Amino acid sequence: MGQRLVSDALYNRLQKLSLLEDEDRSILDRLLARVHDYPVGETVVEEGGPIARTRLILAGWAIRYRTLHDGSRQIVNFVLPGDSIGLYGALFPSSDSGVELVTDCRLAEFPCDELIATCRQSPRIGAALCWIGGQDERMLEQQILRIGAMNAATRISHLLVEIHHRLLLALQGREDVVRIPEQALWMPLTQQLVGEALGLSKVHVNRCCRRLVHEGLIEISRGGLRLLDPEGLDRFCGGERPSSTRASASPSLERGLDPET
Amino acid sequence: MGQRLVSDALYNRLQKLSLLEDEDRSILDRLLARVHDYPVGETVVEEGGPIARTRLILAGWAIRYRTLHDGSRQIVNFVLPGDSIGLYGALFPSSDSGVELVTDCRLAEFPCDELIATCRQSPRIGAALCWIGGQDERMLEQQILRIGAMNAATRISHLLVEIHHRLLLALQGREDVVRIPEQALWMPLTQQLVGEALGLSKVHVNRCCRRLVHEGLIEISRGGLRLLDPEGLDRFCGGERPSSTRASASPSLERGLDPET
DNA sequence: CGCTTCCTTGATTTATGTCAACGTGCGTGG
DNA sequence: CCACGCACGTTGACATAAATCAAGGAAGCG
To answer: Is B96 close to A138, i.e. CB distance below 8 A?
Structure first.
C-alpha cells in the first residue's frame, strides 16, 4: 500500500470496509486521476439539470440543495472530502438537487458511464460504491431525524457532531495517520448555511449558537465556526445514536465478490 | 412477457427502466419466490438490529422509523408495494432504522447474500437495484424538503401527492393495465402517523386535515384517508417539483451491462 | 358492554419566524 | 489610500405557527 496521490479521504473511508485489493486501488487511482479545481460559489450541478459526470471531492466543502417556488433554499446535505457527487449519474437523466461549492474545491471527475465499466471490471469496487451510497442514505435519515424531531439547539449540535464524525473518518480513518490537526475542527459553516440546512431562520440560529458559545462548546468566527468540545456537543444533543459507519465483515460477501468463484 | 405471479409492483416500477431481459425476470422470479405474510404491527426490522434478510413488499404498507431518547418516533419513510427493505443488508451489519408494518403485509424474503450472487449473475439486475436505491434516496430528499422548508398544511398535501404518485407507478406502471380502481386512492394513514412522519403534533395534523377536507381535497375516515382530488392537492402545495422517476435511456448504459461485451 | 384507538375541538403556552437596525471585517475599485 | 458595498454576525421588539393540555365523541373489537 504505497502513498496515495489523490483521494486519501475516500481511501480512508473505504479502509473501514477492508474489501478492496491492491488491484482495485490502482483501478480507482486511474479512474480518479482527472483532477480539477473550482472556486467558491461554483454551481457544479444544476437543479433539475443533467448529470454529465461523476465527481469525488478531494478537498473542500459543498452543499446539495433544492430551491422552493418561494425562493427559499433547503440544504439537503453537506458534501465533504471523500463524498461523491452524481454517483448514480448513469442511471438517472437529471438531478433533483443542485450542488454548490461553499469553499474552493478540488474534485476528481469522470464520465458517469465509466463507473459502469469499472464496476464490471471489479465487482469489489461496485460493492464499495454501493456501501458509500448506503452511507449517503443514512446521512439523509439523520437529517430527517434532526429536522423532524429535534428542537433548534439540539438540531445544531447534532449536525455539528455528525459532520465532525464524518471529517474524522475521512481525515484519519487509518490507524497509522497522525492525530488530527487543530485545523480539522474548523468548519466553513455560516449561520445562514446552518439555517438553510436545518429549517431555521438565521436569527434563531444565531441565538442558539450564542448559547453554545456561552457553554464553551463552539467558537464563532467570520464565515465559520470551530468545535471546542465535540463530546460536550454530543452530550448536549442527548447523544442520539449516530449512523453506524461500520461495514459488514461478512466472509460470504467477500466470497461472493471473488472473481474466481 | 407472461403473467407475473409475484411482485407486480416491482415489475411495474422496473418497466420504466426498460433494462431487464426476460432472462433477468426469471432470475428475479426465483429470487422472490419465497413469500410470507405478516400481521399489522409486526416489527420486521429492529432499530439497531441486524439485517438478516432482504425483503420486497408485495402488498401492504410499512414505515421506516427511528426512536429518540425522549420516546418520540420519527417516521423516515413510508414503504409501499414494490419497495425494498434491507436492500443494503449485505453491506451493513445493522440497521439504523426500524421497520414496522402499518397494515397486514405480504413480503418476499431472501438472505441478503443472495443478492450479491444475483448481481454477479446479472449485472442488469444489479443496475436495476441501484436504480431503486437511488429512488429511495430521492424520496428521503423530498422528505427533507417537506419537513425543512414547508408549513404544516403544505407538508401534508405534498406527502399525499408523493405517495399517490408512487402508488400509481407501482400499481399501473404498464400501459396495458386497466385504470386504477377507486380503492387505490385509499391510504391507511392515521393522523398520528402523518404527524410522526412530518414532525407535527397529531392535534395540528388534525386541524390541517380538516381544512383539506373542507376544500374537498381529501376525505377522512376511521384509520385512514382518501384522496379526492390529487391535482387539487398538487396545486395546494404549490406543485413543488416531485422527484423525477424517469430513468436514463443511455444506450451506453445498456452496452456497458451487456454480458457479451 | 367496556376497552381501545382514532378523531375532534377549545384554551393556552411556547418555540421560532419576521422585521428592523446596527456593527464589523473584508474585498474592490476609484 | 479611501470609500463604498457586501456578507456575516448580533440584538431587540413583536408576530405567529405549532405544541401542549384537556376533554369528549365515535367507531371498532373482544
So the answer is: yes
